[in-house]
Design brief:
Helix content is 65%, strand content 0%. The chain is an all-alpha fold and 99 residues long. The chain has one domain. Helix 4 runs parallel beside helix 6. The chain is globular, with a radius of gyration of 14 Å.
Length: 99
């Protein structure tokens, strides 16, 4: 029951565009546009106030598809985030589907 309670605010924020969006909510909304609409993906990332959380969102998205995630690395603001993003994008096989 506790897991359902934790997911409900995220679902409401995704469905209704509420301001209750946390890091997971921003990820789900950005994931829905990733690879389809780069401007919408970047807008969702820009909606995150904390620069570290923004970098983490970029990394999570880049990890989903490193071959399409390269554009996300150019705006990473932390040194660790920049190094990690370049590492992920530089190793596109990490995003490959298992056989």
């Amino acid at each position: 029951m506790g897991a359902i309670r934790a997911v409900v605010p995220v679902i409401l924020a995704v469905l209704f565009g509420c301001d209750l969006c946390d890091a997971d909510c921003h990820f789900l909304r950005a994931q829905a546009t990733f690879g389809k609409d780069d401007a919408a993906t970047l807008a969702e990332i820009a909606a995150v106030e904390d620069p570290v959380e923004r970098d983490m969102l970029r990394l999570r998205l880049a990890t989903l598809d490193p071959t399409r995630g390269g554009f996300l690395c150019r705006d990473v603001s932390t040194d660790y985030g920049r190094a990690r993003c370049e590492q992920v994008v530089g190793r596109p096989h990490l995003g490959a589907e298992p056989r």
